[in-house]
Specification:
Helix content is about 90%, strand content about 0%. By secondary structure, it is mainly α. The relative contact order is 0.17. Pfam families: Hc1.
């Protein structure tokens, strides 16, 4: 579970950096990268939910 949390934290940091590039620096190419990062976060968060539910059943 710690490994999964680390992946989520890393991906969120990536999203944050791309968002800042888009909004503060005006880098238009950062928009698609930020959106891609949100899709990856969605997958990771679903996996976290699955693992968390399994752990709570033990």
């Amino acid at each position: 579970m710690n490994d999964l949390f680390a992946k989520i934290a890393t991906e969120f940091e990536t999203f944050k950096n791309e968002y800042e590039s888009l909004m503060e620096k005006g880098v238009k190419a950062a928009g698609p990268r930020a959106r891609k990062s949100t899709l990856e976060l969605e997958k990771l968060l679903k996996e976290f939910r699955k693992v968390s539910v399994e752990e709570s059943k033990k």
